[in-house]
């Protein structure tokens, strides 16, 4: 076996200081990236919920089983809109749906679905 | 099924014995070299390391480094690459994983 080589001190210090710097760098980068990833996951969750809600409502509209609530005071607007929409096709309502907000209180139109009157 | 498991469990001590017998001389060789080559620098060696670094910089400034042979240059390049790899091993230890950050 060849005798072990005497390594120069410069190389030895360089190696071990590189090791320590690497450990510190890895730890700092990990601590930096962890909250960013948690934030992204949270935003993804919320967007997924909104998307699922929209899909569910679109599906219900397609099946014709959507139950909406309208303002009793909005009779004039309601008849104007509902008359206009009853003339539209199913596709038009879906397009209008995709351009409105997700909030349930905004659904004041209907095509072939039921309608329930509430006092608010 | 249970009999096969029992037979395997009975063989484990022999397997451990065989592994120890196999690895002992290799560990001895490793230790023989590592005790000299892989030890961290003692505090007395650090000034020598700084002196070596200044020598390097002076050599670079005076143009002496242009005189190195290709063989020497390749060897130094390999040593520098090895030192760089220690940095990446340190990073793997710091992030507690081998591939990617586990966030």
Automatic annotation (TrEMBL), chain A:
InterPro entries: ATP_synth_F0_esu_mt (IPR008386)
Single GO BP term: proton motive force-driven ATP synthesis
The keyword Ribosomal protein is annotated on this UniProt entry: no
Keywords annotated in UniProt: Acetylation, ATP synthesis, CF(0), Coiled coil, Hydrogen ion transport, Ion transport, Membrane, Mitochondrion, Mitochondrion inner membrane, Transport
UniProt GO molecular function: proton transmembrane transporter activity
Coiled coil: 36-63
GO cellular component: mitochondrial inner membrane; proton-transporting ATP synthase complex
Primary location class: mitochondrion
Pfam families: ATP-synt_E (PF05680)
Function: Subunit e, of the mitochondrial membrane ATP synthase complex (F(1)F(0) ATP synthase or Complex V) that produces ATP from ADP in the presence of a proton gradient across the membrane which is generated by electron transport complexes of the respiratory chain. ATP synthase complex consist of a soluble F(1) head domain - the catalytic core - and a membrane F(1) domain - the membrane proton channel. These two domains are linked by a central stalk rotating inside the F(1) region and a stationary peripheral stalk.
UniProt similarity note: Belongs to the ATPase e subunit family.
Protein name, entry field: ATP synthase F(0) complex subunit e, mitochondrial
Organism, as annotated: Stegastes partitus
High-level lineage: Eukaryota, Metazoa, Chordata, Craniata, Vertebrata
Automatic annotation (TrEMBL), chain B:
Subcellular location: Mitochondrion membrane
A GO molecular-function descriptor: proton transmembrane transporter activity
GO biological process: proton motive force-driven ATP synthesis
InterPro entries: ATP5MG_metazoa, ATP_synth_F0_gsu_mt
Pfam families the UniProt entry points to: ATP-synt_G (PF04718)
Assigned GO CC terms: mitochondrial membrane; proton-transporting ATP synthase complex
Keywords: ATP synthesis, CF(0), Hydrogen ion transport, Ion transport, Membrane, Mitochondrion, Transport
Family: Belongs to the ATPase g subunit family.
Protein name: ATP synthase subunit g
């Amino acid at each position: 076996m060849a005798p072990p080589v005497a390594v120069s001190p410069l190389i030895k210090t360089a190696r071990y200081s590189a090791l320590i710097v690497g450990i510190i760098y890895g730890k700092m980068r990990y601590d930096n990236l962890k909250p960013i990833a948690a934030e992204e996951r949270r935003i993804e969750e919320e967007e997924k919920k909104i998307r699922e809600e929209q899909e569910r409502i679109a599906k219900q509209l397609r099946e014709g089983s959507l139950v909406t609530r309208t303002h009793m005071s909005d009779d004039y607007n309601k008849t104007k809109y509902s008359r206009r929409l009853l003339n539209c096709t199913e596709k038009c309502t879906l397009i209008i749906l995709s351009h409105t907000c997700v909030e349930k209180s905004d659904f004041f139109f209907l095509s072939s679905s039921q309608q329930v009157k509430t006092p608010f | 099924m249970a009999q096969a498991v029992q037979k395997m469990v009975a063989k484990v001590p022999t397997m451990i014995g065989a592994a120890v017998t196999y690895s002992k001389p290799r560990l001895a060789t490793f230790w023989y070299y590592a005790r000299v080559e892989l030890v961290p620098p003692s505090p007395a060696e650090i000034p020598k390391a700084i002196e070596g670094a200044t020598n390097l910089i002076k050599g670079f400034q005076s143009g002496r480094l242009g005189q190195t042979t290709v063989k020497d240059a390749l060897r130094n390049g390999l040593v520098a690459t090895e030192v760089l790899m220690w940095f990446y091993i340190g990073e793997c230890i710091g992030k507690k994983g081998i591939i990617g950050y586990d966030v």
